[in-house]
């Protein structure tokens, strides 16, 4: 009888811990997609704080050999399609204005753009800012291509960006 009780209690505790972890996991992506909708309206109460971002950046393991020419080019195309409207690019002014914080110019030569940090920021968005989560629109492979491009092509010039982001990908394998 008492044994049953303890067994039941053990299972209940495991279930609660598991639910807690699941909640944290799901919440991390939910919160960022909500930030998309919050960006247009009145500022949320917590934006009154000067630095709503957590101090330590989230980092994820980076796949080996990330920055292939194909990934960089795919990333340039994806960036042109999805990101330039807010972030701009060399030779292209951002169309969207008035965001606070403002979207940084991600292609300046002095940027770090560490793929380990760029990937989670793009996938999950940046809560409390206009930076949306892309996990619903872009598969992880595309987000890695964006991370490859943003790291590899820092400091790219306007004409080079134009060429890289508009030319069709070469279908023939390398060396042929
Ligand atoms: C609706 C506007 C908007 C769009 C579209 C957008 N971003 Fe952003 N992004 C922002 C804003 C605003 C910030 C600044 C957030 C901050 O200061 O924390 C940001 C920040 C970032 C950062 C972090 C920069 C840093 O210094 O840490 C990265 C990386 C990034 N965006 C990548 C992208 C990529 C890649 C895309 C396209 C797939 C994209 N963004 C599309 C608005 C946007």
From TrEMBL:
Membrane spanning residue stretches: 6-26
SUPFAM superfamilies: Cytochrome c (SSF46626)
Matching InterPro entries: Cyt_c-like_dom (IPR009056), Cyt_c-like_dom_sf (IPR036909), Cyt_C_IC (IPR008168), Cytochrome_c550/c551-like (IPR051811)
Keyword Repressor found: no
Species, as recorded: Mesorhizobium escarrei
Cytochrome c domain residues: 70-154
Name the UniProt record assigns to this protein: Cytochrome c domain-containing protein
Transport among keywords: yes
């Amino acid at each position: 009888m008492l044994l049953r009780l303890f067994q039941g209690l053990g299972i209940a505790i495991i279930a609660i811990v598991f639910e807690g972890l699941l909640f944290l996991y799901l919440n991390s992506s939910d919160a960022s997609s909500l930030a998309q909708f919050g960006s247009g309206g009145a500022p949320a109460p917590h934006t009154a704080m000067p630095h709503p971002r957590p101090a330590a950046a989230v980092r994820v393991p980076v796949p080996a050999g990330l920055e292939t020419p194909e990934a960089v080019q795919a990333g340039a195309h994806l960036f042109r399609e999805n990101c330039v409207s807010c972030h701009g690019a060399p030779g292209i002014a951002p169309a969207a204005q008035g965001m606070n914080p403002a979207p940084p110019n991600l292609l300046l030569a002095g940027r770090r753009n560490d793929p380990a940090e760029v990937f989670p920021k793009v996938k999950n968005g940046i809560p409390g800012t206009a930076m949306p989560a892309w996990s619903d629109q872009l598969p992880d492979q595309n987000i890695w291509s964006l991370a490859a491009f943003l790291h590899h092509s820092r400091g790219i010039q306007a004409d080079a960006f134009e060429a890289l982001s508009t030319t069709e990908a070469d279908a023939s394998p390398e060396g042929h």
